[in-house]
Amino acid sequence: MNVVYISISGNTRSFVQRLQRFAEEKNVNELIIHAKEIDDNTPEEEETEPFFAFVPTYLEGGNGIDNGDQEILTESLRDYIEFKNNPNLCLGVIGSGNKNFNDQYCLTAKQYAEQFDIPFLADFELRGTNDEIQNIYHLLCEKWQAAVDEF
């Protein structure tokens, strides 16, 4: 399975790395995770296989409804997904954030889902829990298998 992600504080990177370790340990149908971290220096390239996107939420203050819904710091992932045919290969987005921010929690992932017409699949808070790792892995396996059968 392919994953692209961006990590500003290290929380998303930690989650994806733990997800990779979980996949290697479980080795369910040999579905390991190939992860690519995107940052401001990553050249945009056209993906050739389906992938999932993991994005944290960083916004310009406010409440996420009337104001404070402008994405900051994670735009390079948006640009990467936007490149050529990549939106059509993105199977869904997983969001992360801090639940203390109420309506802003995972707002960036929800915006990606709307913009690229892809499903918002799951969320996790901060670095995520072991249960979230397990649940999200199984969800990704299910979605990946369905996509591969179609692809």
TrEMBL record:
SUPFAM superfamilies: Flavoproteins
InterPro entries, per the entry: Flavoprotein-like_sf, RNR_NrdI
Transmembrane segments: none
Short name of one Pfam family: Flavodoxin_NdrI
A molecular function (GO) term: FMN binding
Taxonomy, superkingdom: Bacteria
Protein name, as recorded: NrdI-like protein
PANTHER family hit by this protein: PROTEIN NRDI
